[in-house]
Specification:
Layout: H1 2-13, E1 41-53, E2 61-66, E3 75-78, E4 82-89, E5 98-100, E6 121-127, E7 134-139, H2 146-151, E8 156-161, E9 172-180, H3 196-204, E10 210-213, E11 220-223, E12 228-235, E13 242-246, E14 251-256, E15 259-267, E16 270-272, E17 277-283, E18 291-297, E19 315-322, E20 348-357, E21 360-361, E22 373-375, E23 380-387, E24 393-397, E25 402-407, E26 410-411, E27 420-423, E28 428-434, E29 440-446, H4 449-454, E30 457-462
Parallel strand pairs: 1-4, 3-8, 9-12, 11-19, 20-23, 22-30
Antiparallel strand pairs: 1-2, 4-6, 5-7, 7-8, 9-10, 12-17, 13-16, 13-18, 14-15, 14-17, 18-19, 20-21, 23-28, 24-27, 24-29, 25-26, 25-28, 29-30
Bound molecules: CU-O-CU linkage and copper (II) ion (2 copies).
């Protein structure tokens, strides 16, 4: 009975589309083909172009796509790889490709400083850093247009593998979470910024009512009772924050943005803010033939006046379906995954305060001709990020991984490498970062795309 009501609710909420209710077979985006045959050298071809794709049943949608697919093809890399991506822009507007979370030279960062004109090409060249094995993603980052181009379909996954992965051999699933909003004719619903909905999108960030996993609605992952799967989950949504739970099961949380933790953490739910990633071990605790769902539980990141309708509803993301096979013997997991050296606050020579307010950082909107912070390569800094308004803002720094020290003075429960961190309404998060890497001008910004495009971004110049 409960299942039937949930299904009905799903039908009603997407009535304009003739009922987007999913049950798709499982599929992940294609792997991007490496055309180099030299070990350790990777050469990819990537093109962004307009396309017409069937995103929701019965209609075609005018989109932008990388190599014709949404999400774009997955880049699989190994630590130490020398990578060249031959990018071609076939869009009717300028774009860039930003490799979110990767430590690359600033010339390869795809920041708003380096637009690729329509019809133009650019080679992005970098080496994959040691110790950076993890889950990342790529997306456009042009000035003021990131939200639009990502909503149109431009995003894809990057997986970096280590030579000594303690979880090697555990079957993997990639889950790219996105959402979108459609008109009844299948076209993307991108409201006029001056309309009431446009104003709400600007405030909250644009959320869609159709939830996708790898471009599919409510797909099914098959699993055998007793089996273990490693899930890499990416929040590629413009503004939706996912509070993930697997109904009736606990999850082993084993990693986040910059790869594995030191040891697994058994949890009931995980908060995944915009642009963050997690690695999970899902254990086949269910009986043969049973099913469960990966859910997005309600999460209140809003000011009361503009909470979207239905924000407090649980949404199903995918079905985990147990085969009828007899349970397999449990896998023995390593108690320790790796060592993460702590960055030492005693080494920090600079402390900065970053005040997040609605659309602004330290009271200012982004200006590409201004440098907000000047720093030195090789030094360690503490950043205190103060959210002074009543809405969450997920904070992202380009080019370097940081460690979260504390939230409102409470030490972080564990050490990990991050490039994005959610700063909830009226909270303060302190991070520590060592500028081991490349000089240049690096962006830091809110990763709610509408906020970023409004100018909730600053520039750190390292010399
Ligand atoms: Cu995911 Cu500055 O970006
Ligand atoms: Cu980034
Ligand atoms: Cu924000």
């Amino acid at each position: 009975m409960i299942g039937r009501i949930a299904l009905l609710a799903g039908l009603i909420s997407s009535a304009g589309l003739g009922g987007v209710r999913g049950q798709d077979a499982w599929s992940a985006p294609p792997l991007l083909h490496n055309r180099s045959t030299i070990p350790g050298v990777v050469e990819f071809d990537l093109t962004a172009a307009p396309a017409r794709l069937a995103l929701v049943p019965g209609t075609l949608t005018d989109v932008y796509a990388y190599n014709g697919s949404i999400p774009g093809p997955t880049l699989e890399l190994r630590e130490g790889d020398r990578v060249t991506i031959h990018f071609h822009n076939d869009l009717p507007e300028a774009t860039t490709v930003h490799w979110h979370g990767l430590n690359v030279p600033v010339s390869a960062d795809g920041s708003p400083y380096d637009p690729v004109a329509p019809g133009a090409s650019r080679d992005y060249v970098f080496t994959v850093g040691a110790g950076t094995a993890g889950t990342y993603w790529y997306h456009p980052h042009p000035d003021h247009r990131s939200g639009f181009q990502i909503a149109k379909g431009l995003f894809g996954a990057i997986i970096i593998r280590a030579a000594d992965d303690p979880l090697a051999g555990v079957p993997e699933k990639l889950l790219i979470l996105s959402d979108n909003r459609f008109r009844a004719d299948g076209s993307l619903d991108l409201p006029d910024p001056d309309s009431p909905q446009g104003q709400i999108d600007m405030e909250n960030g644009r959320e869609g009512d159709v939830l996708f996993v790898n471009g599919h609605v409510l797909p099914t992952i098959p699993i055998q009772s007793g089996a273990v799967q490693r899930w890499r989950v990416i929040n590629a949504s413009a503004a939706r924050v996912y509070r993930l739970a697997l109904a009736g099961q606990t999850i082993l949380h084993v990693g986040d943005d910059g790869g594995l933790f030191e040891r697994p953490d058994e949890v009931k739910e995980i908060l995944l803010a915009n642009s963050e990633r997690v690695e999970l071990l899902v254990r086949g605790d269910g009986q043969p033939g049973s099913r469960t769902t990966l859910q997005a539980l309600p999460y209140d990141r809003y000011v009361p006046q503009t909470r979207p309708a239905g924000w407090n509803q649980t949404r199903d993301l995918l079905t985990l379906a147990y085969s009828a096979d007899r349970p397999r013997p449990p896998l023995v997991l390593p108690p320790t995954l790796r060592v993460i050296p702590a960055l030492d606050t005693a080494d920090a020579t600079v402390t900065r305060v970053v005040v997040l307010s609605q659309g602004l950082i330290n009271g200012k909107a982004m200006d590409m001709n201004r440098v907000d912070f000047e720093g030195r390569l090789g030094t360690t800094e503490i950043w205190e990020i103060d959210n002074v308004v009543g809405m969450d803002h997920p904070f992202h720094l380009h080019g370097f991984h940081f460690q979260v020290l504390d939230r409102n003075g409470v030490p972080a429960p564990r050490r990990s490498w991050k490039d994005s961190v959610n700063v909830p309404a009226h909270e303060t998060v302190r991070i520590i970062v060592r500028f081991d890497g490349y000089p240049g001008k690096w962006m830091f910004h809110c990763h709610i795309l509408d906020h970023e495009d409004q100018g909730m971004m600053g520039v750190l110049e390292l010399k």
